[in-house]
Write a structure and sequence with these properties.
The complex is a heterodimer of chains A (96) and B (404).
Chain A: H1 2-11, H2 23-27, H3 30-60, H4 69-79
Chain B: H1 2-16, H2 18-41, H3 46-63, H4 65-68, H5 71-78, H6 84-111, H7 117-121, H8 123-137, H9 148-162, H10 166-182, H11 185-206, H12 208-212, H13 219-247, H14 255-276, H15 283-302, H16 305-314, H17 319-345, H18 359-376, H19 383-393, H20 398-403
The chains are: A mainly alpha (96), B mainly alpha (404).
Chain lengths: 96, 404
């Protein structure tokens, strides 16, 4: 099956502009192309953001629902220079 | 979870297509965000809440590959030759933006003594929005392929679909692709050379705190050094995109040249961090060295260089297959490096901040050395560009593809 597929690929004629008639029409897809990238980038942004939120939680394990400022400070230190002055007493609230 | 995710993603993409794979990935993130929000909102014990949260994150870890793995599929399917690298780099930089955003948000939340719950809860509407918008607007492929290479791969997919049982075809493609990649010597050289160097960079980032502490560097300065690393590593991909625009003039980039330049640059950055790391290391020197490391290694980490290079040399195999193996190989090397480095940093010798003679220094040198040695064996193999050049020579108008 692999050989068959390889042959199909190697025998594929150079792809030209037999469909050139719709090329002009296709020019209008440029914004669509951009939109695909924007939606995809938004998803990447959100997934990394979710991962970043979890960093202090993984670091502090079960106690992380008690985490605090140390945890968020850790996150801040890991990801940026930001520190959290005067944030003592911050606690994550879990209703329990 | 991540490794399982990339293998599942490869199968799903080949079986059901790019759009279905991305939508499935976005749905898993909706589930994850919903579960995480429930974990912090439900009136349950912290122990149970933690279990719900971990379960949600496990779903996320598997599902995230369903779209992250398709980055070169997106660029190859939708963008002409001279825009593919920029597209991959742009999408990669969205990830950098994500970490930066949460880094800025977290202190803001903390300084107002607010609950961390919001960091989870607001992800639910965000993911629902992304999923709905994607459902409406994300398409499988453009009406016309943007390049000859994309046309060849589209035709191969269609022939494959007509060839028989779809499940069988997809499984064959999954294992067939991975087997082909494993026996592709040049690709393996690329995977190992880039992974040994870039994963070493990230390993040092992970152990940065305990590494700098014995030298008298305060946590605040460590934070600044990491921030400078993050920011400069986001800047260098822009330099990369600019350089391929200048050097390659719209044609397919000379990936081996760029790979060599940036891998050597990353190794130089590693050397810089190690060299300044000694007793008496000043804050400004530490910050400068990490900033330089970010700048010199950012392309390997954040740009599409290695991803597009692997797609280029393994053409006509599906580009997401090469990412799958890059992810598995990179994760494996990273895991080993982190375990060893973490052990080394906990040794008494590390507490004296004598990095020049510490085992960790030699560990970094050996890893970077392996990466550079392998790099020397990397050969130019531009199968995708060759296909596109053949198409142009055949009198076809590749420019038309570029105009799409």
């Amino acid at each position: 099956m692999e050989t068959e597929a390889s042959q199909l690929l190697s025998k594929a004629p150079p792809l030209g502009v037999e469909q050139a008639g719709i090329a002009l029409e296709a020019v209008s897809i440029t914004p669509v192309r951009f939109l695909q990238l924007v939606i995809y980038s938004a998803a990447i942004f959100m997934s990394v953001l979710n991962y970043s939120v979890m960093i202090p939680i993984y670091s502090y394990g079960l106690d992380r629902f008690d985490v605090s400022l140390q945890a968020l400070n850790s996150l801040a230190n890991v990801r940026t220079a930001a520190t959290i002055p005067g944030a003592h007493g911050f606690r994550a609230h879990v209703r329990c | 979870m991540g490794v399982a995710g990339v293998v599942i993603a490869l199968y799903v993409t080949e079986r059901f297509g790019f759009r279905a794979s991305c939508l499935a990935g976005y749905l898993t993130q909706c589930l994850c965000s919903f579960g995480s929000a429930l974990a912090v909102q439900l009136p349950i014990t912290p122990h149970d809440a933690f279990a719900v949260l971990l379960l949600s994150q496990a779903v996320s870890a598997v599902g995230v590959a369903l779209f992250q793995n398709n980055i070169t599929r997106l660029s190859g399917e939708w963008f002409p030759t001279n825009e593919r690298d920029a597209a991959v780099t742009a999408a990669s930089l969205a990830g950098v933006a994500g970490t930066t955003f949460i880094s800025l948000l977290a202190p803001a939340v903390a300084s107002r003594t607010m609950s961390v719950d919001g960091l989870f809860v607001w992800q639910v509407p965000a993911w629902i929005t992304i999923t709905v918008v994607a459902w409406v607007y994300v398409k499988e492929e453009p009406p016309q392929p943007p390049s000859a290479a994309a046309a060849v791969q589209r035709r191969a997919r269609r022939l494959s679909r007509r060839a028989g049982n779809q499940d069988e075809q997809s499984v064959w493609l999954l294992f067939g692709s991975l087997r082909s990649l494993l026996s592709h010597g040049n690709y393996m050289v690329l995977l190992l050379s880039s992974s040994f160097v870039i994963q070493m960079v990230y390993t040092l980032v992970i152990i940065m705190g305990p590494m700098l502490q014995p030298c008298g560097i305060s946590p605040a300065v460590t934070g600044v050094a990491l921030a400078s690393f993050s920011i400069s590593s986001a800047v260098s991909p822009l330099l990369y995109v600019f350089s391929i625009m200048m050097l390659d003039k719209g044609s397919s980039p000379d990936y081996v040249y760029h790979q060599r330049v940036w891998t050597i640059a990353a190794a130089v950055g590693l050397a810089g961090v190690i060299l300044v790391h000694r007793q008496g290391e000043t804050a400004s020197l530490a910050i400068g060295a990490w900033c330089l490391l970010g700048l010199l290694s950012g392309v390997l980490g954040n740009a599409g260089l290695t991803l597009e290079h692997s797609a280029e040399m393994t053409f006509p195999l599906p580009p997401n297959a090469s990412i799958t193996l890059l992810t598995i190989g990179g994760n494996a090397i990273s895991f080993i490096q982190v375990v060893i480095a973490t052990h080394m940093i906990s040794q008494p010798s590390a507490a004296t901040c004598t990095m020049l003679t510490s085992p960790l220094t030699w560990f970094v040198v050996v890893n970077a050395g392996i990466g550079l040695l392998l790099l020397a064996a990397l050969k130019p193999e531009y199968n995708r560009a060759k296909t596109e050049a053949m198409d142009a020579v055949a009198g076809k108008q590749t420019a038309v593809y570029g105009a799409l």
